[in-house]
Amino acid sequence: MECMSGSSLRLPLISSVISEATNPVTSPAFLSNPPRRLRRKTINMGLLSILRKLKSAPDQEVRILLLGLDNGGKTTLLKQLASEDISHITPTQGFNIKSVQSQGFKLNVWDIGGQRKIRPYWRNYFENTDVLIYVIDSADRKRFEETGQELAELLDEEKLSGVPVLIFANKQDLLTAAPASEIAEGLNLHTIRDRMWQIQSCSALTGEGVQDGMNWVCKNVTAKKK
């Protein structure tokens, strides 16, 4: 799968086991070598405490903005991420929002329509974006210039300054699809210096390459939020 990029839990120490005994013993021998049943009980309680903390800890929320020209496959991609039926897809006239759990993150994905009349409203959704995902129809070569212009304008937006960008070169299942490397060269992605970026070939229809891209997203969100 082609892609290009720009740039155990440890058990808490148990200081004392005396509090777990019915009749505390103070002899040095007991402290250094408590009964096996007591040791097992103490360790089990330590494990349960850790598991409860992990279970109660909420997933870190990440706001993802999903953009691109109309008919690029954004909604199909979103449904693929959410493991939903993709047999009936209609063009997005407004926006879709879905939350996806991945690698300890709650990914709140905003899919905004890509029709020309809707694009001026994209900027209403820029606030607090953690990751930008831009979807390109790799088989629609006639629109490469248009999609490149839209991407360049997005990267110049102040509210998206420094936001990592993942570019999905979608529809790789089609024989006419341009490879990700060709698209990267045509869009001059190598000139991006102010943020992390990656272009990932994928097929939203088959799911191929989608998880690779999302793994990159989770990795770079972690680095960004540290």
Automatic annotation (TrEMBL):
GO terms for cellular component: centrosome; Golgi membrane. The keyword Protein transport applies. It is a peripheral membrane protein. GO terms for biological process: protein transport. It is found in: Cytoplasm, Cytoskeleton, Microtubule organizing center, Centrosome; Golgi apparatus membrane. NCBIfam families: small_GTP. InterPro entries: ARL2/3 (IPR044612), P-loop_NTPase (IPR027417), Small_GTP-bd (IPR005225), Small_GTPase_ARF/SAR (IPR006689). Its main location: cytoplasm. Keywords: Golgi apparatus, GTP-binding, Lipoprotein, Magnesium, Metal-binding, Myristate, Nucleotide-binding, Protein transport, Transport. GTP binds at G68, L69, D70, N71, G72, G73, K74, T75, G114, N170, K171, Q172, D173. This is ADP-ribosylation factor-like protein 3. Pfam families: Arf. It comes from Pangasianodon hypophthalmus (Striped catfish). Belongs to the small GTPase superfamily. Arf family. The keyword Acetylation does not apply. Gene3D superfamilies: P-loop containing nucleotide triphosphate hydrolases. GO terms for molecular function: GTP binding; GTPase activity; metal ion binding. Mg(2+) binds at T75, T92.
